[in-house]
From TrEMBL:
InterPro entries: LRR_dom_sf, LRR_R13L1-DRL21, NB-ARC, P-loop_NTPase, Rx_N, WH-like_DNA-bd_sf, WHD_DRP. Belongs to the disease resistance NB-LRR family. This is AAA+ ATPase domain-containing protein. Residues 703-826 form the R13L1/DRL21-like LRR repeat region domain. It comes from Setaria italica (Foxtail millet). SUPFAM superfamilies: L domain-like, P-loop containing nucleoside triphosphate hydrolases. Keywords: ATP-binding, Leucine-rich repeat, Nucleotide-binding, Plant defense, Repeat. It holds the Pfam family Rx_N. Residues 447-522 form the Disease resistance protein winged helix domain. GO terms for molecular function: ADP binding; ATP binding. Residues 18-108 form the Disease resistance N-terminal domain. PANTHER family: OS12G0206100 PROTEIN, PLANT BROAD-SPECTRUM MILDEW RESISTANCE PROTEIN RPW8.
């Protein structure tokens, strides 16, 4: 119900059912209390007016009404929403008191053991609470319905006015213009896109003539151009049509515009037929139209371009539309332009074709400027255009301040002010095609700052807390609905997903970003509903605001804080302080929050010691997040609370902690020592995740306290050695937790002594068969759980076994068909996996990590599905092979290689890589990262470099016994076709590995026989960006100028403790080296080399003085002694500067790209530097106390400058 009123304002199809739901539920409560007398007429009037209200919502354009801010209709719509929300709040308050009664009943049950006394006291208190609350509730509910009835009367006034409001004129014109799209090129000039056009033309024409003239396609290929509105998709399609006209590639070329308010198969089919026949078809029914279309297409190659397609949900309609094209002439093609990948996914799925997509990005700088010049200033007079360039050039030449750019922007607007309107119109049309609930969630994101990195979990929880997710009933969780919303918004290009971390790891994740233009769109369409306030901002129509984020809260005065309740209808309040607040400001904020009666979400960042009032005023809160709290008594009465989070540990007493157990609606809580502490969870029946539950022997913390938590999705239990008997576990009902997807079972690391019960306890910890992720850690029993043998864990995706020191044998887990991640860590006694080495690990395994298993001598066969392999500190004597099923190399015939990352570390028993997967040619072809480090016993390492044509990173180190075989023995070891080294014997120094050109990073650490041959194999590695040499005692010189000249991408060189190094070779020819570090090389003739161990004077020396585009610089002392020419060469690129002992005065203002500044030591006489505006991080490790006080005192010039920096640590 929380989302009901908000969805009313989304309008259209949702308004009527939402209001009907509120009215019917309110009267059901009144009837239950026999208080509905005299209200029947109100109910009848409200329900009768629903159709009239729906007519108003359906007829008007809310964006247009909002633009007419003072109009009577706009005022009425807001009043109506206020009244709906008032009714919703009244219903929510009824639910609140019901939850309060349940909490009282639970408390009595805990306090009174005698069941008779418990029953009597429970009934007495229940009646008292019910009698006291019902009087107030009835009065509130009746008034809310009367208010709603009073406002609803006004709808009659507007029924006769709604005919005045058309759709947005500019939008309507844009759509009608688009619908006239044809294959004729409408643009008179075309900027850029040559590469994209060539790619499309290749796709259209390659292999077009294969097959006989009568052969037909089993599936017609589909190619999609995807991009935001206005980026040039349609024009690119028209350009392709123009270039193909008159050619012999296609007999029919049709461009049909598909966009429209409804996806009509008949309408689109008519358009296609009309474009082919050049006349309107006589037929009207779809069946007749498609029959004519089939005849027209018979035995003819065609190109069908479907332009500006939006529909991504009606599969049956798509199947109908595409039916005539399913059996087409070989060589026919379909080209699709759309803003949403979800559309392309739908069409390729219907046609059964491959997903071949082009994501159209923005133009480059030159093309963008030419396009801007053409679109924005085409109609300007010559003198106006000259004037514009003079203005822009003049401002660019000077020191460009913020005021300068404001003036420039004003003058540009005066010359041509419609470009932003055109862009925003195109984006608005995308927004209007979204379902109402997605529009609501999209608008909400306007309160976040631009370039905000959204985490899926955090954003969905905020949508839930603010009441934006409408649960329609059934078993669906609001979290699943919210994640679906975000997925749809991403597929429809309103968000972009940016992956982070190791892409081959189980913990691979990412974040979502919103393009600046889309953020502007979200602000523009938020109807004064969602507002982000910087300090000093002011809002006039505060009663319309529902969701508010106040940034830099510490800058607000007490008067401004006390004015926050003027936003009387707030649902969301986010307070973000740039520094910890004083107690006076905190108290003012407490009073303000207390007066926000309808608040659903409250987030306080850097607000310490906040207290909720003991007499709860915020009965509707669903989401509360703190950085600090002093009193929890009021918080423990927020019975609607679903999410309770803390940024730091909050110390609460036992009585305060106990009360948190009354929050039966709580779904997420910062539990344990890093949050609100440990409290009773037995009553938290809605909890979705419970992390770090410490099993204890005292009441309330025993394992059977989990019995009522039937909705748990994630559970981590610790200190399981405190379970006294396996019979206790039965009461926890672990196997009945249907929703449980992730389970972590942990004993303490100090639990050394095995107990007789250990194996039986683990056997009873049997999860539900739907479990996907399982972790077992520090278990001290000798037997693997019996339920692995008989339980059908068909959904198991991840299995992690850690520090189980008594296990000697493990199964190969072959029955876990869906297992993708397997990690075995510090199983110190493990000697065998599977019944024999010939068995294979699970067939769909992607990641295998084996660490700290020193007794394990061999691994089972690896599946061909494996993507990532990490072996660390393991007693293997040989590496495993990849299974070749049915006795043949299936992968080489049909299955592409998957293995991408291999890390072998600290395997002292490993002497050779022969007979391992590294010599299976097919499976190393996809390898991108290969690391072999600290294998002290390794002697021979035959590597198929010539087959690793995707290798980007290679590290080999601390393999002191590693030797190269003599040249005359290579032929005996490997056949010529499998040779792993190519030797060229013109001279002894010309021995080379056949290293693939894809290599980007090369690191060698003490690898004896490999050092010089690898270094001599660098020529022509045009993608190499980083070179690291450490403890390479045989290296006497870096490569020659000829080699370094060929390393066009090389940016980083690290040389450490290479005792024989005499020369830097030809390094001086590298003009764009951004990082150079040479340390501990005593034989190097140039003793003063390396700016981070001597002085900036080194920058005068060759080759350092020619460095350009340097991104990071570390110097020991001074700054002013850096050569001026060097600074000029690098001031645009330098992003990080670390000075160990800075000068008294530092001229930093010219470093316009500097983001990170660090001082190791700041003495008393150091002047405060003029910091560049680009700076994001400022760190001083050792600061003079007086200097620290001067620089960190608020309202000083130094502090005003520092406070604008995102990250400061002094």
């Amino acid at each position: 119900m929380a989302a009901t009123a908000a969805l009313v304002f989304a309008g259209k199809s949702i308004a009527t059912p939402a209001i009907s739901f509120i009215v019917n539920k309110a009267f059901s409560y009144l009837s239950e209390w026999h208080q509905a007398e005299g209200m029947e007429a109100v109910k009848d009037r409200l329900l009768q007016r629903l159709s009239e209200i729906q007519a108003v919502y359906a007829a008007v354009n809310l964006e247009q009404i909002e633009a007419q801010n003072g109009s009577a209709l706009n005022r009425w719509l807001w009043r109506f929403r206020d009244a709906v929300e008032g009714a919703e709040d009244a219903l929510d308050e009824v639910d609140y008191y019901k939850l309060e009664e349940e909490a009282h009943a639970r408390n009595l049950q805990h306090q009174v053991r005698n069941p008779v006394i418990s029953f009597i006291r429970e009934r007495v208190v229940e009646r008292f609470v019910r009698h006291a609350s019902e009087g107030k509730m009835v009065k509130t509910l009746r008034k809310a319905l009367e208010d709603l009835d009073g406002v609803a009367k006004g709808v009659c006034t507007f029924l006769q006015l709604i005919s005045r409001f058309d759709t947005h004129p500019l939008i309507g014109h844009a759509e009608s213009s688009y619908q006239q799209t044809s294959s004729a090129l409408t643009a008179t000039e075309f900027f850029g896109r040559d590469r994209e056009k060539e790619q499309i033309m290749r796709w259209l024409t390659d292999k077009l003539d294969e097959g006989s003239s009568t052969s037909r396609n089993s599936t017609i290929p589909v190619f999609a151009i995807i991009g935001i509105g206005g980026i040039g998709k349609t024009t690119l399609g028209q350009l392709v049509c123009r270039d193909l006209e008159g050619s012999s590639h296609f007999e029919i070329i049709v461009l049909a515009h598909v966009s429209g308010n409804t996806f009509s198969v008949t309408r689109i089919t008519k358009k296609i037929l009309e474009a082919i026949t050049k006349q309107k078809p006589n037929a009207e029914t779809l069946q007749a139209l498609q029959q004519i279309l089939k005849l027209e297409l018979e035995n003819r190659k065609f190109l069908l371009i479907l332009d500006d397609v939006w529909e991504d949900g009606q599969r049956m309609e798509w199947e109908l539309l595409m039916a005539p094209f399913q059996t087409s002439q070989r060589g026919s093609r379909i080209l699709l332009t759309t803003r949403m990948q979800s559309v392309a996914d739908m069409v390729t799925s219907v046609m059964g074709s491959k997903k071949e997509y082009m994501h159209l990005r923005g133009l480059d700088g030159d093309d963008n400027f030419r396009l801007f010049q053409k679109v924005a200033f085409e109609d300007l007079k010559a003198e106006d255009y000259t004037h514009l360039l003079r203005i822009a050039g003049g401002y660019l030449k000077e020191n460009v301040s913020e005021q300068y750019w404001e003036n420039l922007h004003t003058q540009l607007e005066q010359l041509e002010g419609k470009l932003d309107v055109i862009v925003m119109t195109v984006l608005r049309s995308s927004y209007r095609h979204l379902p109402e609930d997605l529009q609501l969630c999209f608008r909400y994101c306007s309160i976040f700052p631009k370039n905000y990195m959204f985490k899926k979990d955090g954003l969905v929880k905020m949508w839930m807390g603010s009441g934006l997710i409408h649960v329609k009933g059934g078993m669906e969780r609001p979290e699943d609905i919210g994640e679906g919303y975000l997925a749809q918004l991403t597929r429809k290009s309103f968000f972009s997903f940016v992956p982070t971390g190791d892409p081959y790891s189980k913990h691979y994740t990412g974040y979502y970003i919103m393009h600046d233009l889309l953020h502007d769109l979200a602000r523009n369409v938020s109807f004064s509903e969602c507002v982000r306030l910087e300090y000093g901002d002011y809002m006039h129509d505060r009663h319309t605001v529902r969701h508010l984020w106040i940034a830099k809260f510490s800058k607000l005065t007490i008067e401004e804080i006390e004015a926050i309740p003027f936003f009387k209808n707030l649902r969301t309040l986010v307070i973000e302080s740039s520094s910890d607040l004083g107690i006076v400001h905190v108290h003012a904020l407490e009073r303000a929050v207390e007066n926000l009666k309808g608040l659903r979400l409250l987030i306080l960042k850097r607000v310490p010691k906040f207290c909720f009032a003991k007499e709860v005023a915020n009965k509707h809160l669903r989401y509360v997040s703190f950085s600090g709290m002093q009193e929890v008594q009021g918080l423990s009465k927020l019975y609607h609370l679903q999410i309770l989070a803390s940024e730091r540990s909050i110390n609460l007493g036992p009585e305060q902690l106990k009360k948190l157990g009354n929050l039966s609606r709580l779904r997420y809580v910062s539990y344990g020592i890093n949050g609100f502490g440990e409290f009773f969870v037995v009553g938290l029946s809605s909890l979705q995740e419970l992390h770090n539950f410490q099993v204890q022997e005292k009441e309330g913390y025993q394992i059977h306290s989990l019995r009522n938590l039937s909705k748990l999705c994630k559970l981590k239990m610790c200190n399981l050695e405190n379970v006294r008997s396996h019979k206790e576990i039965i009461k926890a009902k672990l196997s009945e937790k249907f929703h449980l997807r992730s389970l972590s079972l942990n004993w303490s690391e100090t639990n050394d002594a095995p107990k007789d019960e250990d194996d039986r306890i683990l056997d009873q910890l049997e999860p539900h068969t739907r479990l996907q992720n399982l972790e077992i850690a520090c278990y001290n029993g000798v037997r693997f759980p019996s339920w692995f043998n008989h339980l059908s864990l068909t959904n198991m995706v991840s299995l992690e076994l850690r520090r189980c020191g008594k296990w000697v044998r493990l199964p190969a887990f072959g029955k876990l068909k869906l297992l993708k991640h397997l990690e075995l860590q510090k199983l110190t006694e493990l000697k065998q996996i599977g019944i024999s080495p010939d068995v294979s690990l699970p067939q769909n395994l992607k990641t295998l990590v084996v660490e700290g298993c020193k007794e394990l001598r061999e691994l089972p066969l690896l599946p061909p599905s494996l993507v990532q392999l990490e072996i660390n500190d393991v007693g293997l004597s040989t590496l495993p092979r990849i299974e070749e099923r049915h006795g043949t190399n299936m992968g080489s015939e049909g299955m592409p290689p998957k293995l991408v990352l291999v890390i072998i570390r600290e395997c002292p028993n490993l002497t050779s890589l022969e007979r391992s997967f590294l010599l299976q040619e097919h499976y190393v072809r996809a390898l991108r990262i290969l690391s072999i480090v600290d294998c002290v016993g390794l002697i021979t390492a035959p590597l198929l470099f010539g087959k690793m044509n995707q290798l980007t990173e290679f590290r080999i180190g601390s393999c002191s016994k590693l030797e190269m075989p003599p040249a005359n023995q290579l032929g005996d070891q490997l056949s010529p076709g499998n040779s792993w080294i190519k030797w060229r014997m013109r001279n002894p120094e010309d021995k080379q590995f056949s290293i693939p050109n894809t290599l980007k990073e090369l690191s060698m650490v003490e690898c004896r026989g490999f050092e010089v041959p690898l270094l001599n194999s660098l020529f022509g590695l045009t993608n190499l960006t980083s070179l690291n040499l450490c403890d390479c005692a045989k290296v006497e010189s870096l490569p020659s100028p000829r080699v370094f000249t060929s390393l066009q991408a090389l940016r980083e060189i690290f040389v450490t403790r290479c005792s024989s190094l005499l020369s830097l070779g030809g390094m001086g020819v590298l003009p764009y080296l951004t990082w150079l570090e040479i340390t501990g090389c005593p034989s190097l003739h140039m003793s003063k080399l390396g700016v981070w161990r001597e002085t900036p004077n080194d920058l005068f020396l060759k080759p350092l003085r020619t460095l350009r585009d340097t991104k990071s610089l570390i110097i020991s002392v001074g700054f002013r002694s850096i050569p001026q020419q060097w600074l000029q060469q690098n001031n645009m690129s330098l992003k990080s500067l670390e000075i160990l002992k800075p000068d008294t005065r530092l001229p930093l203002e010219d470093l316009i790209s500097l983001k990170r500044l660090e001082f190791d030591e700041a003495r008393r006489h150091l002047e405060f530097p003029i910091l560049p505006s680009s700076l994001e991080s400022f760190i001083i490790r050792k600061c003079d106390p007086e200097l620290e006080k001067k620089w960190t005192t608020q309202e000083t010039p130094e502090w005003n400058s520092i406070s604008c920096i995102r990250h400061v640590k002094i």
